[in-house]
């Protein structure tokens, strides 16, 4: 079953507006990493199909990268959320500053009207003062009153007139102060708006970059998940047939072991069953061990599987030497082992020991033939369940497969 992450909705939305061209981390590194793993897997599991080994290697590579990709995607999403928040907050601050600017402009206009009104009154006072030869009408009134020429003659009326004129002058000066203050505030707000606009524009750019990055990281993550899921699906599809193939190989291995055991029993019945000095030598001396004897979990079936011998990285066409003195029990074609040679070394320190040489291009001996340690018995190859030139060398102790290395090193 394939699974896709329902990643951040924004990523899907952004896909509509953003360019979609994001290179993977380093494809060449990935390729060589997978190639190396394919070789490794094929060495570890002889006969493992190359395409399947590649699928496993790709699955493993994707799996290995997943935690980092998940973390990177999460970080990018968090950064995007932060950038969106910052953008919104900048926009809000800008709107609020613009509203304040509008209010101040209105206040200043209203104030200017007030000033104009007060100015008119003040001008009238000024004119009166001029007409009264340099003294204000209030003072003139006072003089008239003192001289008893005032029409209605009350001191209260003079007082009221003076107060009213003083109020006009006070209001004018107060309104001027208020407007001066508002002008200063307006200039401050206008400057702030200019700064906020720059910051808001930066926030938009940062948000867009964060969107691109989040989308890129989400795509990488989804690609990995898809690759892993596709690989898992292929592996799962091949599980049953691989199990069947391994079962057949195991049956063949058991059958061949049984044949050797029967042969050995026959020899023991005959009595004398010692062929050499009891010392065995490496049949592929100088070549590296590419896969040791032992149990390992099969990458497709998930079951433990015995690697029944030691693999040596021997090129095809290399002469293979008998590990010790003995008699050839079998030589020729088998299924999974390809061209195989089995040599019995008789009793060594109380145990019945035989050695086998597998995947050969050619066998150079025939059953029943006596061989000496070091004799060429076959030519190496990659026949049977094998995907590369090598020698699969086995030691059978009392009819069972054991680690060959302690016998030959
Ligand atoms: Zn092997």
For this entry, give a set of tags.
409 residues; alpha+beta; Glucose Permease (Domain IIA); three-stranded antiparallel sheet; binds zinc ion
Could you please describe the fold and organization of this structure?
This protein has helices at residues 9-15, 27-44, 50-131, 137-147, 155-237, 239-270, 405-408; strands spanning 289-291, 294-297, 304-307, 310-312, 319-321, 326-333, 339-348, 351-360, 362-363, 370-371, 376-379, 391-397, 400-402. By secondary structure, it is an alpha+beta fold. It folds into 2 domains: 1-237, no CATH class; 240-408, Glucose Permease (Domain IIA) (Distorted Sandwich), CATH 2.70.70. The strands form 3 sheets. Strands 1, 4, 6, 7, 8, 10, 12 and 13 form an 8-stranded antiparallel sheet that branches. Helix 2 (27-44) runs antiparallel to helix 3, helix 3 (50-131) packs antiparallel against helix 5 (155-237) and helix 4 (137-147) packs antiparallel against helix 5. It is rod-shaped and about 170 Å long. The two termini are 49 Å apart. Mean pLDDT is 88; it is low at 1-23. The protein binds zinc ion.
Name the bound molecules.
zinc ion
Helix content: 55-70%
Number of strands: 13
Main sheet properties: 8 strands, antiparallel
Low-confidence stretches: 1-23
Order of helices and strands: HHHHHHEEEEEEEEEEEEEH
Our count of domains comes out at 2
């Amino acid at each position: 079953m394939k699974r896709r992450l329902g990643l951040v909705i924004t990523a899907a939305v952004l896909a509509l507006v953003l360019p979609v061209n994001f290179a993977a981390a380093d494809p060449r590194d990935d390729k060589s990493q997978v190639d190396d793993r394919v070789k490794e897997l094929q060495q570890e599991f002889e006969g493992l199909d190359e395409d399947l080994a590649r699928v496993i290697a790709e699955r493993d590579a994707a799996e290995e990268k997943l935690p980092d990709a998940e973390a990177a995607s999460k970080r990018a999403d968090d950064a995007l959320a932060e950038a969106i928040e910052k953008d919104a907050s900048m926009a809000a601050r800008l709107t609020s500053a613009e509203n304040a600017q509008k209010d101040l402009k209105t206040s200043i206009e209203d104030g200017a009207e007030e000033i104009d009104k007060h100015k008119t009154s003040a001008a009238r006072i000024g004119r009166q003062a001029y007409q009264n030869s340099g003294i204000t009408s209030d003072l003139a009134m006072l003089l008239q009153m003192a001289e008893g020429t005032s029409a209605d003659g009350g001191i209260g009326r003079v007082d009221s007139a003076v107060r009213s004129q003083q109020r006009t002058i006070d209001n004018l000066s107060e309104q001027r102060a208020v407007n001066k203050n508002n002008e200063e505030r307006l200039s401050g707000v206008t400057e702030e708006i200019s700064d906020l606009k720059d910051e808001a524009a930066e926030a938009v750019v940062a948000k867009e970059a964060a969107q691109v990055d989040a989308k890129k990281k989400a795509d990488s993550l989804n690609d990995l998940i898809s690759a892993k899921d596709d690989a898992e699906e292929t592996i799962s599809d091949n599980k049953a047939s691989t199990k069947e193939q391994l079962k057949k190989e195991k049956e063949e291995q058991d059958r061949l072991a049984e044949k050797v055991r029967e042969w050995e029993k026959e020899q023991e019945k005959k009595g004398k069953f010692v062929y050499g000095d009891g010392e065995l030598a490496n049949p592929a001396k100088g070549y590296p061990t590419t896969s040791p004897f032992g149990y390992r979990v099969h990458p497709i079936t998930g079951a433990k599987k015995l690697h029944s011998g030691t693999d040596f990285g021997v090129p095809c066409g290399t002469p293979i030497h008998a590990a010790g003195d003995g008699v050839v029990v079998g030589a020729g074609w088998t299924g999974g082992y390809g061209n195989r040679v089995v040599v019995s070394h008789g009793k060594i320190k109380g145990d019945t020991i035989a050695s086998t040489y597998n995947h050969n291009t050619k066998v150079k001996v025939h059953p029943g033939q006596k061989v000496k340690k070091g004799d060429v018995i076959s030519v190496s190859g990659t026949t049977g369940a094998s995907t590369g030139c090598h020698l699969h060398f086995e030691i059978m102790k009392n009819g069972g497969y054991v680690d060959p290395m302690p016998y030959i090193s």
